[in-house]
């Protein structure tokens, strides 16, 4: 064979070159900083516009971002970015963005945010379809919006009084600077990868629920008390993972838990294997000393994945937490502290601004 023999140093150099070619377009998702003041710079350093990182993003997203349109309605099968600017004021209507209408962005003015309202209840529509805003499509973005269900607060007596403000059922959906407001079942974080940043979520019981895989960054959770006074009825999350083989769960990082009630549970085991982690979270003393609930089913303590990592303030009480709650090590917390938790480096873009 009349071929050239490649020496050891040349093999090493060749491997280095191949490594550069293979990994040049991959963004490494660095952990969210422990110092909250550094989070914005961290985020802006990774999540840059399409022109600066097109090769690292989903191809269909890059194509959709080419020649975006600002229009009043969206056709079925949409494959281009559509930005819908919503002016100040209140809009009472039920909004549903169907699965075949991807790449839609709803954006309001951060200085005068529009109110999207409706008063649907579970009795009228079923729980998940009672939402004021329902997003079923992929690559949805909502920014600077007040999303509110104005149905009366459940009194513990009326059947079907629970009501949803927002249901997110599409993959790769992001919300920036949104207020999501209701009482019971406020946010149906239904399915898919989702990202919430600088949001405010207001509710009473089970008000972040579903089978989503979601990262909540720098977001405030405000809890109101339940009028019936049942201590099991002041609950933030009801994540619906049913087995350890399901790759779903909620990660809350650098948030704040506050409210007007005592003995709030951070989550309860509605299904057998929920996964919820709070990291660097400021917890007011409203949090129950035990922190979490097995939903009065002790056997679920063996199957839940409830974790905390370096949380602060009076509500963070590691010594009194239920035995099934994990105080995570640095290594255990790492997967919940990166954008890769929601595959974010492939699809997240900077928050949209109001078009000129």
From TrEMBL:
<dbReference type="GO" id="GO:0042545">
    <property type="term" value="P:cell wall modification"/>
</dbReference>
<dbReference type="GO" id="GO:0030599">
    <property type="term" value="F:pectinesterase activity"/>
</dbReference>
<comment type="pathway">
    <text>Glycan metabolism; pectin degradation; 2-dehydro-3-deoxy-D-gluconate from pectin: step 1/5.</text>
</comment>
<keyword id="KW-0063">Aspartyl esterase</keyword>
<dbReference type="InterPro" id="IPR033131">
    <property type="entry name" value="Pectinesterase_Asp_AS"/>
</dbReference>
<dbReference type="InterPro" id="IPR000070">
    <property type="entry name" value="Pectinesterase_cat"/>
</dbReference>
<dbReference type="GO" id="GO:0045490">
    <property type="term" value="P:pectin catabolic process"/>
</dbReference>
<comment type="similarity">
    <text>Belongs to the pectinesterase family.</text>
</comment>
<dbReference type="InterPro" id="IPR011050">
    <property type="entry name" value="Pectin_lyase_fold/virulence"/>
</dbReference>
<feature type="signal peptide">
    <location>
        <begin position="1"/>
        <end position="29"/>
    </location>
</feature>
<protein>
    <recommendedName>
        <fullName>Pectinesterase</fullName>
        <ecNumber>3.1.1.11</ecNumber>
    </recommendedName>
</protein>
<feature type="active site">
    <location>
        <position position="206"/>
    </location>
</feature>
<keyword id="KW-0378">Hydrolase</keyword>
<dbReference type="Pfam" id="PF01095">
    <property type="entry name" value="Pectinesterase"/>
</dbReference>
<keyword id="KW-0732">Signal</keyword>
<feature type="domain" description="Pectinesterase catalytic">
    <location>
        <begin position="69"/>
        <end position="344"/>
    </location>
</feature>
<dbReference type="InterPro" id="IPR012334">
    <property type="entry name" value="Pectin_lyas_fold"/>
</dbReference>
């Amino acid at each position: 064979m009349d071929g050239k023999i490649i020496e050891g140093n040349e093999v090493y150099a060749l491997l280095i070159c191949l490594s550069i070619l293979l990994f040049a377009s991959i963004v490494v998702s660095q952990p969210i900083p422990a110092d909250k003041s550094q989070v914005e710079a961290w985020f802006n350093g990774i999540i840059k516009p399409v022109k600066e990182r097109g090769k690292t993003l989903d191809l269909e997203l890059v194509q959709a971002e080419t020649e975006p349109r600002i229009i009043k309605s969206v056709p079925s099968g949409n494959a281009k970015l559509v930005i819908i600017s919503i002016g100040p004021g209140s809009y009472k209507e039920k909004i549903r963005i169907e699965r075949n209408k991807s790449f839609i962005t709803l954006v309001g003015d951060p200085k005068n945010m529009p109110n999207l309202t409706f008063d649907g209840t579970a009795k009228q529509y079923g729980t998940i379809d009672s939402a004021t805003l329902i997003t079923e499509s992929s690559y949805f973005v909502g920014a600077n919006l007040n999303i509110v269900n104005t149905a009366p607060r459940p009194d513990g007596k009326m059947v079907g009084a629970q009501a949803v403000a927002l249901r997110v059922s599409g993959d790769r959906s992001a919300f920036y600077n949104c207020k999501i407001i209701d009482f019971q079942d406020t946010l149906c974080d239904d399915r898919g990868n989702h990202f919430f940043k600088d949001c405010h979520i207001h509710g009473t019981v089970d008000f972040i629920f579903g089978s989503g895989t979601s990262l909540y960054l720098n977001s405030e959770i405000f809890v109101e008390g339940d009028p019936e006074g049942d201590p099991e009825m002041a609950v933030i999350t009801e994540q619906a993972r049913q087995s350890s083989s399901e790759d779903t769960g909620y990660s809350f990082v650098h948030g704040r838990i506050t409210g007007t009630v005592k003995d709030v549970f951070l989550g309860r085991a509605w299904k057998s294997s929920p996964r919820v982690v709070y990291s660097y979270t400021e917890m007011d003393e409203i949090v129950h000393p035990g922190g979490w609930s097995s939903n009065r089913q002790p056997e679920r303590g063996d199957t839940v994945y409830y974790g905390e990592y370096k949380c602060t303030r009076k509500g963070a009480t590691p010594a009194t937490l239920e035995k099934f709650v994990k105080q995570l090590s640095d290594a255990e917390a790492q997967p919940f502290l990166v954008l890769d938790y929601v595959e974010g480096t492939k699809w997240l873009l900077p928050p949209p601004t109001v078009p000129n």
